[in-house]
Amino acid sequence: MMQESGTETKSNGSAIQNGSSSGNHLLECGGLREGRSNGETPAVDVGAADLAHVQQQQQALQVARQLLLQQQQQQQVSGLKSPKRNDKQPALQVPVSVAMMTPQVITPQQMQQILQQQVLSPQQLQVLLQQQQALMLQQQQLQEFYKKQQEQLQLQLLQQQHAGKQPKEQQQVATQQLAFQQQLLQMQQLQQQHLLSLQRQGLLTIQPGQPALPLQPLTQGMIPAELQQLWKEVTSAHTPEEATGNNHSSLDLTTTCVSSSAPSKTSLIMNPHASTNGQLSVHTPKRESLPHEEHPHSHPLYGHGVCKWPGCEAVCEDFQSFLKHLNSEHALDDRSTAQCRVQMQVVQQLELQLAKDKERLQAMMTHLHVKSTEPKTAPQPLNLVSSVTLSKSASEASPQSLPHTPTTPTAPITPVTQGPSVITTTSMHTVGPIRRRYSDKYNVPISSDIAQNQEFYKNAEVRPPFTYASLIRQAILESPEKQLTLNEIYNWFTRMFAYFRRNAATWKNAVRHNLSLHKCFVRVENVKGAVWTVDEVEFQKRRPQKISGNPSLIKNMQSSHAYCTPLNAALQASMAENSIPLYTTASMGNPSLGTLASAMREELNGAMEHTNSNESDSSPGRSPLQAAHPVHVKEEPLDPEEAEGPLSLVTTANHSPDFDQDRDYEDEPVNEDME
DNA sequence: CTCCCCCTAAACAGAC
DNA sequence: AGTCTGTTTAGGGGGA
Length: 675
Known about the structure:
Strand order of the largest sheet: 1-2
Radius of gyration: 34 Å
Distance between the termini: 16 Å
């Protein structure tokens, strides 16, 4: 059964993924179609555009080209500049023409913002950067294409001038240019949308004081003529410092440099940093450490000798051939544009999904936080288990007061097991593949741990991170007379740990086994039968075995046990359940959440070992993570009792009012099951 | 790789 | 006869 459930979950997960991917496919198709039709749309009404206008445009384009070259040179140089200076000089002037053809990738400034705010996890950043790289590639191609067009145009113009022909052909060429510009604008538009979506999803935060992102509709619907007009306006707004100090000073008016002090309108259009020819790595130090920046032969679209252009997968022997392939097969055309568009949509989808998951995670964490702390503050937090002292008398009384009713049948112990909560019964005890217990090791007194996490252990089906021997000893030592009958030991287990309210046959057998096996447990004949006592000397003898673990771990345990252990367990459970290792490191958009997450992750690294180990320990052969892991399939034979028994039969047993009764519980069902 | 610890499963026997 | 208790063996996972 467990097996079934496990695979079910898995298949579900994959199903979801498949679904989404197929969705993407659909999306892709649609996008393609759409892209194509759009690619053709930029039909410019040439007739309406007078020749002067066209020439003006050409002029601007020419200037833009020059600027482009300069920009590229500048980039090379700026690589040597201190990033600080670059950052402090957002006034880097950007010719509109260049900005226009510069895809609105995330500017260095924004990038830095992101990095500083740490709103993104490294993984997210990586993804973003890769996206940016892809965009930059597109942009480069655009520029190349643009250059070619320019040259062609020049040539034709020359020929026409010499031949004295009337520029009908010229008009055609100009039309092409305009169409091309339209395409560029479209690209830009798309990228802006991309940015916008990022912003919407909180991936990008824009601070009020910062230069506005190029998100305004200004450029979106703008036609080249308007841009031209704008350039002129901007040009007139030139500031002295720009004229003197910048790299474009050699250019004529049409270069229309835009400074940071330029009218808001223009600054909106081009973020100064957008002028970097899309090469993100130039300004931000962190960017320079990008893999493909350092290694010229690594390319986001190239890997393992295969072109990674969506839907391509052409084999390229080496990087050079890849570049050739890229330029030939994926040059700027309708198809590439559409594919780029599609890719953007895919990215958007993913981002959307990420946002949703983040939201979910936040809810989960919030929920867990509340839950895990509640027991501490309130003795009877969830009305599940009355706070029971460890004394025997209490044990007698408490069981009755154990209201299992509030809980769901399937998850008797876990306070909240339904709905969005991730800590389902299954997840809870399926947590943690690691078989490690810090019990006696690490010198952490078991009593303190149990005392601290009493409520948690009682409520959550989390395996206590102690060996049976340790638990038995604890049970015995807690008793007034330091001696317990087997049945009383059983009772202690079930009373103190929700985990032991299931699979009774298993753990009881283990308890008996331990009692018999370890010399430290001494059986004493008593009036009312036999009782078990602890030979401390013997017990201590067997303790020093392996005090492994790093010191920090111990420290962790001491300090954060009360709160973190359960929390970690829960968190891990959720992770395991969702089997989303991908997201484990993915931080949340919310900084505080991210911090919390990282803290928790740390805890997981340390304290979790305990928790997990617990889980894996007694859980008959199955540990949570393992459950989530394919590898664990091996242990599935055990599952039947594990999952099936506990979930269905045992659960009901748990609800039995006679909680205090010893034999109580699931024993019977499970036993029957097993036998 | 080996040793050791721990857990789980199971067979078995004796007592009630 | 069935259940509980106690013992013992076997096998596997995991850490050192």
